[in-house]
């Protein structure tokens, strides 16, 4: 029995909150797990756990040792995965999260081409406009349309897109063409609450960014419904270009304030912070980056 096994036992006890739970996780007896931890403490010459008849807690030294031991075990696991990946094709189930509106309008052909190229990978694609917790909910990777701020995740930029203010010809005929973003405050608007800024819309003019808070006639947590409301003449709305490109080409909507809407939003593939990226995640992220570089330009913009 070696230090590695003792370390594994200690980490399992600390994470599970007790010897019995750790024994079940490791499929070993409680007595053996307890012996492993005692032997580790004897080897180190310190007490790692405070034990009473009712509870178990880490000592200060034990908490520090747990952080380092967990990292070491993770590195070893990653190393083993990396070695395995060099000798086999990527395979297995890949769980992916993406915004519903983006999945419905853009991701379909991308996913189909990826599956054609990777016959050993199966895909569980979940479309949801909320930000999922990748680790808690068991996702391998997520596509996010946002400014990245979560340092616990690794992000690879795939592309970018614009949001634009649009309205139907009938709405523009009834309300006029806004000359500046501030004009929107007095006009009927439709707000997609999936946008993180909701009714506060960001604009840029001559390199200077500023916000305008509109007064929505309707708020809805669906960009598709916001699109339909705009086509029906309910008001002006702000939508991602990939949502409204079809309506723009058909003449159902007209873009306004173009000179104020040059900012772009990043499109990212994000995944949990791991030193080694599993083969199936790596090939998916690489494929996505290459596909969007070659094919994605919904409105012919730069």
Explain what this protein looks like in three dimensions.
The chain has 302 residues and is of the alpha/beta class. It folds into 2 domains: 3-85, Orthogonal Bundle (Arc Repressor Mutant, subunit A); 144-302, D-Maltodextrin-Binding Protein, domain 2 (3-Layer(aba) Sandwich), CATH 3.40.190.290. The protein is built from 10 helices and 13 strands. Strands 3, 4, 5, 6, 7, 10, 11, 12 and 13 form a 9-stranded mixed β-sheet that branches. It has a two-stranded antiparallel sheet with strand order 1-2. A hairpin with a 4-residue loop joins β1 (49-51) and β2. α1 packs across α3 (30-44), α1 (3-16) crosses α4 and α2 (19-26) packs across α3 (30-44). The longest helix is centred in the N-terminal third of the chain and has 26 residues, at 60-85. It starts with a helix and ends in a 7-residue tail after the last helix. The mean pLDDT is 87.
Q: What is the gyration radius calculated from CA atoms?
A: 26 Å
Distance between the termini: 62 Å
Profile the largest sheet.
9 strands, mixed
* CATH topology category name of the largest domain: D-Maltodextrin-Binding Protein, domain 2
Give the count of helical stretches. Answer: 10
Strand content: 25-35%
Helix content: 40-55%
Poorly predicted ranges: none
Overall, the morphology is: elongated
Average pLDDT confidence is: 87
Give the strand tally. 13
